[in-house]
Amino acid sequence: MDQSGNNQLLLRASQSGPPGYNGYTGQHAAADRMRELLARTVQDHIVEERTTAAALQDIRQRLNDLDDASAAGIAASLDGLAASLGTLDSKLTARLERLDERLDDQYDRVRALESTLKEQPVSLEEAVAKGVETSGADIMARIASLEDTVLTLAEALLRPAIRRLASQKLQNH
Predict the structure, then answer these.
(1) Can you spell out the DSSP letters for the chain?
(2) Tell me: the pLDDT tens digits for 11-22?
């Protein structure tokens, strides 16, 4: 909408009485309030239009300021960037191929180990059970030996006490 159209809307919105005003104070106050709100809205719209027009004018000015030399410079920069990206892409592709080869080698090694483990006659569970059984037997033997030693020491410690008690009884009688 052009400037004159906006001004006409403001003028109509700010007129004092609505057409067909019937004299009710409540209706008049509501109509006045609505006219004020409409006038503010139109004014805000005009301000926004002016701000947008100024921003568009600034953009047009900047685009006009870009001449062929600066456009060529930008194009050259973009071409250089494209070449750099192409070089990086080829290097990355080569590295990914080497990594793929290494992963294939590792995959082959894992497959070989897996087949070796499958060929083993004793499963892991059996090997662990056998180790636990052997360790358990060894621990039980050591505990029995320790028990014998403790009993021997206990007997040895109790014998002198028994002798002393017997000698004290004899002395007291």
Answers:
(1) --HHHHHHHHHHHT-SS-TT----HHHHHHHHHHHHHHHHHHHHHHHHHHHHHHHHHHHHHHHHH--HHHHHHHHHHHHHHHHHHHHHHHHHHHHHHHHHHHHHHHHHHHHHHHHHHHH-SS-HHHHHHHHHHHHHHHHHHHHHHHHHHHHHHHHHHHHHHHHHHHHHHHHH-
(2) 555 554 555 444
